[in-house]
Write a structure and sequence with these properties.
This protein is α/β, with parallel strands linked by helices. It is built from 21 helices and 28 strands. The chain has 4 domains: 8-282, Glycoside hydrolase, family 3, N-terminal domain (TIM Barrel); 311-523, 3-Layer(aba) Sandwich (Rossmann fold); 553-667, Sandwich (Immunoglobulin-like); 714-811, no CATH class. β10 and β11 form a beta hairpin. Its EC number is 3.2.1.21.
């Protein structure tokens, strides 16, 4: 690569995309274009162009379990093995940068994109992501962890401002990214759409320079989410390398003009261009055909791997004893009634940009029908998939379950395609009412009921006391059905543990009163009390705690020893059945120290043991074990004092614990009594005065804009004084609703437009619209139709001329 001989214009051209998925290259400098593709759990190599939402066709690829399922394995080595397969497929499909994994913390169970994210805990999320990243990059393909950072809701996702205190941001929302960057060294990272404390992520100097580069040592490329760049000039200054998908030459011109005016230094452009060029060099391909497809051997091998991954992700949540034995595994040759639409028509992934065109597809009904271990007494649909009432389906299911030929009922339930999708958040935490009605009817049959639950996020379970076994399979990928059958029949011993808490009801969530936020400012009022950190500290009962999972084995724990470097203890399998124990290390800070949750996960290990086998396990402390972020000094500190170290099966089940004297770099600082309700984690009771103490500053009340701007979502135009703007929003809303009702899936294009601010128009139209034209559109939205349309036409003419001039100069450069 020869960057030193490039002009400012040529370097600036490297900093934005050439098309929906391709970067720009410069042949004379030896910098090829490279291809980016969605790929958190499978490569979505787009056919054609113009689609970044997973609507159009893509090349067949293996659909592995989504991140929400993979995290339940608590196995970073398995994630690395899956990453290797992802990287291999990306290479074969001519993809240089795989856009994943997703690392955002699950702040609330209703976030529509939670199925793409690992956990509510940053240690678990970070370690799983690090494994996946290492595997991907072994193939010479760049992983691209996302969305950096503090991105927690889909509503207004491109026009939302996450208001958060520095300590919570560092400890909860950034630590997973820190682990991934430090331990796996990704070559690129993707910023989020939202603002953080008033500054867009892609132009946030504190985030991209102070923390990511200076503190963590990241030396790679920072790419915007698609349409997520605001100011190209401010992004270059702050550390944003590549703007995607394609603003045409609009951003190129803005950058060149800024250098000429002295508002941007040439050295900043040099750094950003070098970061983009380095990705092109690191991921360079030779002889790859753009129309290449996966070979049969890869398809078969990776399907088998997808099954093995799915087997490790299954979480056994309930397994009662009936007639002297546990219901699961199913007794050999049990006569099983299979009930539920999702048993026949599988759902194994979410909707949106991560949606994979899977190489194969399995259904649980087919797997049961071909099993030699059980006998299928029959199948009934049981419910309408989209939730429409149909009593006849329930009657048919009850008739089958009641028959003499049925010994066990297997009911397959879950969320439909409308419920979990990029672009919109869930409206509630309930299963469709028709599924709950089915379960009520099946209870009266009086036979053992096994529920197989398919969902990427927690759901309320009003019938939990009426069923005998519950297997949570999540969104388990294309081989999830066969994996589930193997767990149900005992060929596989379940070893998954929940990577997030399951509240009894949505009202129990710490931020149930303020999620999602419809206005600009999303205030993270709960502070560090996210997930189990809240439930354990505030003593709020949950349905299933973080880290929970049953197996067909039994384990005991003993002989805990703590030294300055870490802990050691013994784990024994006290049963006849080989299995795996997920051992979790939690710590509790000094009683007279800073405000903290009651306990926090700091490490974990998955231990495989044969029947009646024992093992000595060692877990070392690391930089994350005892630290907290001190807002006064703006640095990481460790408090000297007596800490509690806990070895647990899940966050509520402490098997071993010990006190440990830690010598830190500061004396304990008692929590400020003015924190009030926060001292006990009772975040819903905290008022604005207590919030100001937590944040270290007053937090202004959200205000509704009187005038629409370029960064307000188009959805807000439904209140516009302009007839054209109001009408457009109403049409989009009506179209999206009708599409969802007709197809059972959300209209992602309509949702994207409704949630996007007008500024995105000049970022995703290949330069056909520039900032002046966006200002004209905003004028129309504010009721100035004539003036706006006139300004738009004039700006369009000027923009076309400028684009032609830049293209000509680059062509002859």
């Amino acid at each position: 690569m020869e960057l030193e001989n490039l002009s400012v214009l040529e370097e600036a051209s490297l900093l934005s995309g050439a098309s929906e998925w391709d970067s720009r290259g410069i042949a004379k400098a030896g910098i090829p274009s490279f291809v980016m593709s969605d790929g958190p759990h499978g490569v979505r190599r787009q056919l054609g162009s113009g689609d970044h939402l997973g609507i159009g066709e893509s090349k067949p690829a293996t659909c592995f379990p989504t991140a929400s399922a993979l995290a339940n394995s608590w196995d970073p080595d398995l994630a690395e093995e899956m990453g290797k397969a992802l990287g291999e497929e990306a290479r074969k499909l001519d993809v240089n940068v795989l856009l994943g994994p997703g690392l955002n913390i699950k702040r609330n169970p209703l976030c529509g994109r939670n199925f793409e994210y690992y956990s509510e805990d940053p240690i678990l999320a970070g370690r799983m992501a690090a494994g996946l990243i290492r595997g991907i990059q072994e193939n010479g393909v760049s992983a691209c962890p996302k969305h950096f950072a503090v991105n927690s809701q889909e509503l207004r996702r491109q026009a939302s401002n996450s208001v958060i205190d520095e300590r919570t941001m560092r400890e909860v929302y950034l630590t997973a990214f820190e682990i991934a960057v430090r331990e796996a060294k990704p070559w690129s990272i993707m910023t989020s759409y939202n603002q953080i404390n008033g500054v867009y992520a892609h132009e946030n100097h504190h985030l991209l320079q102070d923390i990511l580069r200076d503190e963590w040592g990241f030396d790679g490329m920072v790419v915007s989410d698609w349409g997520g760049s605001n100011s190209a000039v401010d992004a270059v200054k702050a550390g944003g390398s590549l703007e995607m998908p394609s603003p045409g030459y609009t951003s190129v011109k803005e950058i060149v003009d800024a250098v000429a005016a002295g508002r941007l230094s040439k050295s900043d452009i040099d750094r950003r261009a070098a970061e983009v060029a380095r990705i092109a060099s690191r991921t360079r391909t030779t002889g790859v055909q753009r129309d290449a497809l996966l070979d049969a051997a890869s398809i078969d091998a990776h399907h088998q791997l997808a099954r093995r991954v799915a087997e490790s992700c299954q979480v056994l949540l309930k397994n009662d004893v009936v007639a002297g034995r546990t219901v699961l595994p199913l007794a050999p040759q049990s006569r099983v009634a299979v009930i539920g639409d999702m048993a026949k028509t599988p759902r194994f992934q979410g909707t949106g940009s991560s949606k994979v065109n899977s190489t194969r597809e399995e259904s649980l009904l087919d797997e049961f029908m071909h099993s030699a271990d059980v006998t299928v007494a029959g199948y009934r649909q049981g419910y309408e998939r989209q939730g429409d009432a149909n009593p006849a389906l329930i009657e048919d299911a009850v008739a089958l379950a009641s028959g003499d030929g049925t010994e066990v009922v297997v009911a397959v339930l879950g969320l439909d395609e409308r419920s979990e999708s990029e672009g919109l958040d869930r409206e509630h935490m309930k299963l469709p009412a028709v599924q709950n009605d089915l379960m009520k009817a099946l209870k009266a049959v009086g036979k053992p009921i096994v529920v197989v639950l398919i969902a990427g996020s927690p759901v309320e379970l009003p019938w939990i006391d009426d069923v005998d076994a519950l297997l949570y399979v999540g969104l388990a990928g294309q081989a999830g059905a066969s994996a589930s059958l193997r767990v149900l029949t005992g060929a596989v011993n379940p070893s998954g543990h929940l990577a997030e808490s399951w509240p009894v009801s949505y009202d129990d969530c710490p931020n149930s009163q303020c999620f999602p936020v419809a206005e600009r400012d999303a205030v993270y009022r709960e502070g560090p009390f996210v997930g189990y950190r809240y439930y354990e500290t505030a003593d709020v009962p949950v349905r299933f705690p973080f880290g929970y999972g049953l197996t067909y084995s039994r384990f005991s724990y003993s002989d805990l020893h703590v030294d300055e470097q870490g802990i050691a203890f013994s784990v024994s399998n006290t049963s006849d059945v080989a299995g795996e124990s997920v051992v979790q290390l939690y710590v509790r800070g000094p009683a007279n120290g800073v405000l903290r949750p009651d306990r926090e996960l700091k490490a974990f290990v998955k231990v495989a043991l044969r029947g009646h086998e024992s093992s000595r396990v060692r877990i070392d402390f690391d930089r994350y074990t005892f630290r907290h972020f001190d807002q006064t000094s703006q640095s990481w500190k460790v408090e000297t004092g007596r800490w509690t170290v806990m070895v647990a099966e899940h966050c509520e089940s402490v098997m071993l614990q010990a006190e440990h004297e830690v010598v830190g770099d500061m004396e304990p600082v008692p929590a400020d009594p003015e924190l009030g309700a926060y001292l006990k984690g009772r975040v819903k009771e905290a008022g604005d005065a207590e919030l100001a103490v937590l944040f270290g500053r007053p937090v202004p009340a959200p205000k509704k804009a009187a005038v629409f701007g370029a960064n307000d979502p188009i959805l807000a135009w439904q209140d516009s004084p302009g007839f054209l703007a109001r009408t457009m929003v109403r049409i989009l809303l009506r179209h999206e609703r009708k599409t969802r009702e007709k197809t059972g899936s959300p209209d992602l294009n309509a949702l994207f437009v409704l949630n996007m601010p007008p500024r995105v128009m000049c970022k995703m139209t290949r330069g056909q619209i520039n900032a002046d034209m966006v200002d004209a559109v905003v004028a129309i939205a504010n009721g100035h139709a004539c003036r706006g349309m006139g300004s738009f036409i004039a700006a369009y003419i000027r923009n076309r001329k400028a684009n032609r001039n830049i293209a000509k100069e680059l062509q002859h450069g």
